[in-house]
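Practice problem: predict the structure.
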Amino acid sequence: MTPLGPHLTVFLREYLPNQREMSVQTSDTYAYAFQLLICFAAERLKTTPSALFIEQLDPTLVLAFLEHLEKERGNCARTRNSRLAAIKTFFRFLEYRLPICLEQTRRIRAIPVKKTDEVIIGYLNREEIQALLDAPDPSSRHGLRDRAMFHLAYAGGLRVSELVGLRVADLTLHPQPAIHVMGKGRRERVLPLWKETAIAVRDWLKVRGEPSSTALFLNARDETMTRSGFEYILEKHIRVASTKQPSLTQKRVSPHRLRHSCAMHTLHATGDIRKVSLWLGHATLQSTEVYLRADPTEKLEAMASLIPPTLRRGRFRPPDKLLTLLRPKP
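Answer:
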């Protein structure tokens, strides 16, 4: 039996950042996927995470984990496929380190991805966003932190990995407030900040203190904020915001929905999909076109520019009841 821990450590700390040159955000996403997998496997096998062996992560357990993501955690097929991609990358890495696991590796890499529907994206309207931004208590340290996080996540259209990965050094407040973001695929972008967002961030920095961590946002232990920590905080404040905007109770508000909301509001304001793509840090316009399908404005303009075909006028006359009775039944 081969211990899992040492190989997973090399995979996350050396292989991904050095050999594959993946960004910190991508490495963190992979690490989070394995955090979910290892916790699930340890509970299922009645053992501790550090006592797991590679051979125990067989295709049956991986398939059960993927089903757990969809049915119990409520993840969509796209998230399920993302977690599977991380697992396949790890086992592809093991092919060269552990030839003894070659058959297990090939079976896991043969697990198919699930087809996904191209659904219309969901987003929050301006009233719902405002209710969320007003939910944190600005008279407390954590309230100032949460308000600054929500403002940055929405104003910058940030992925959750980009948000929790921000450092204090990535923030510029003079002369023009802006943040430097390392995005997906190692694509960097600089985003200017609204005056309101800059004020929220300044208020947080005043009470942040000088902990050892260089991260911009910290948890209750003054350590770097995690993805799961931000998700918990967002869920807590959504319950508060729902008292002012009851429509929030009908929506599943995830961190990525704040990014969708920024994209849709930017599209409404500018009418230019290229500016939305630039703001979000997409590699191609094809990734941004999903917002056009959710926005009816372009479709209404197209409909207004067309001349609809005319209808031939006529008057409906019901058939004679006696003739209808005498007709043979099909």
